[in-house]
Amino acid sequence: MSLRKVLALWIFIISISVAIYGFWNIYSISEVEYWTMVASLFLISSACYASGIHHHIISKGQKGLPMLVYGTLLLSVAAFSMYLPTPIDLRPWDIYVRIPNRFFFSLFMLLSGLFGAYLSFRPYYDYKKEGAQVGAYYIFHLTLLFTLLPLFLVIFNIITRGIGGITWEFLTKDIVRMGEEGGVFPAILGTLAMVSLTAVIVLPLGVGTAIYLSEYAKKGLAVRVIRTAVNILQGTPSIVHGLFGYAFFVLFLFDGRKCLLAGSLTLAILTLPIVTRSAEEALNAVPSELRDASLALGATKWETIKNVVLPPSLPGILTGTVLGLGRAAGETAPIMFTAVYFSGAGTPSSLFRPIQALPYHLLSLYRLIGYRDVEQQAWATALLLLLIVLGINFTAIIVREKYRQRF
Amino acid sequence: MLAKIREFIKDETKCERIDLPENTKMRVQDFDLWYDDTQALKSVDMDVEEYKVTAIIGPSGCGKSTLIRSLNRMNDTIPSVRTEGKVWLDGYNVYDEVTDCVDIRRKVGMVFQKPNPFPFSIEDNVFYGCEVNGMDMDKEKTVKKCLKDAALWEEVNDRLDENALSLSGGQQQRLCIARALATEPEVILMDEPCSALDPIATAKIEDLIDELKNHYTVVIVTHNMQQAARVSDYTAYMYLGELIEFGDTTQIFENPQENSTEKYITGRFG
User: Fold this and answer.
1) Could you confirm whether domain B24-117+188-265 is CATH 2.60.120.330?
2) Does the pTM of the predicted model rise above 0.80?
3) Which range of residues forms the domain containing residue A368?
4) Which of A250, A253, B34, B200 has the fewest CB atoms within 10 Å of its CB?
5) pLDDT tens, A373-400?
6) B105–A295: do the CB atoms touch at under 8 Å?
7) Cross-chain CB nearest to B110 (options A296, A300, A308)
8) Domain boundaries in chain B?
């Protein structure tokens, strides 16, 4: 292996290490020392210098210039970063934010590491075009990895901390002594009951709206208004849905009593835009040639929709619905004013009785931490909730794969 | 013929009627069509002979597909379309207020440019039209007869329950023809039925059209002039929404009266 390749590998290894270290620091609580960043940048820049100068001496070429420029850039950043005020205080500009320096240090280490790794492919491929190409290829894969990593960290964290609290008693008993003992059985049943009821409410409404928008409505002002309304509904914060549910369903319809039905209705409003939009997309994906074929055979419009348009779009509709329900299962804000008690509601017995639900149970336990010994139970509840939501999403994937249609 | 009560007329007493000459199945009379403000058909007049093949040719965008889709009111599905004029079928106006356009489409079947079988089994595809129209027919017999008429029976008789999408493009198009035959139409409209097919599949469809004209009246749109010359008895030449010339296929191809027709047929534009 030539010295050129060794230097390239050296840049790559250092850069990647710095990137990972910076990435880790964004997520960790520990303080990043100023000197670690300066040292990291200095390491990368020295490697870049070595490679660039090596190239200039060997082949008297100009293509090593980016390495020298990048190295100089990193050195100057390292030099000037000591003048960065710490922490960065935006209060003089009426923004009440103080950003700790470690955030910038970590971010900068991540970015400079990634870019250094990208550059290192050039000397490795002898400054041919292939180097930039391969570098881009791997760097985009790396960014994907950095995107997925937080997801796995969250799941891993919750599983390792929560698994210890999952016992038979936890799964099958009602809560005792504010969650310190007993389990979450009514909350599991409550969540499942509420989500199923939501599905029953939202499916006909959402699919009906989608059929109207996609098949019947003439393109015009009315459709644009409806579509914008659906989008606004989707962008509405869930706490607003919760307050609306409290004001309209609980106070107005159910005489001030929280109940299962009120919660499901609120969640149905929350998931309606998701179901409508996915159903509309699924319906639009059915080629118009099939509609023409059916109409040309003497079928009416409704027969055409029922026989030709709906069956192939059903997997798409179901996938969208199930994803929406997955969101509904994890929401706390829409149900906390409309349907749930922390304890004492028992297993769901009537549409007009309050229930217990996992997300609200988790919130209540979190509030109790410090006063009571419920941390283990809180993690276990989080794990259960995560499993239910992941399970629902996984069902969506299976449904989609199994009934996927081609045209 | 006129005494026969037509299913597609909802109210026999209210509709307008004319006597078409013997052997004339359809007549397009002073027919205009607009897409919003763009006029796509300009006072078209044309007769369609019974048990004959009528071809419509012309350069792209001349309105030939629009015209053929007007014959069974398929243009009704496009919201921006507005029509004026009359299309007569056996002396009844297709565009009459009392005409049920759903029933019209059963009597005037259509085959499209791109093979568009439903994602069902082969037999369900063929029987679909009978089912939605509530026609009381034996499924097995109907499927067999239609597939035989469409020259597809030999190739698919052992796999009628397979998905129609597993067929090749040419087979799919013949399946679409079989599907159109199942509702017992009297006229079959074909909108460039071979433009998505290879030469062998095209030859099969052309043979089939030759067979079909013994029992059905066929109207075919094509941008392939050789095809029009091969399969049709009458040819209509359209240009910019107007019907420039209409006549015997041999006359149109060998002795065109209009300058524009001659230019198009000899390949000087189009």
Assistant:
1) no
2) no
3) 169-402
4) B200
5) 888 889 999 999 999 999 998 988 888 8
6) yes
7) A296
8) 24-117+188-265
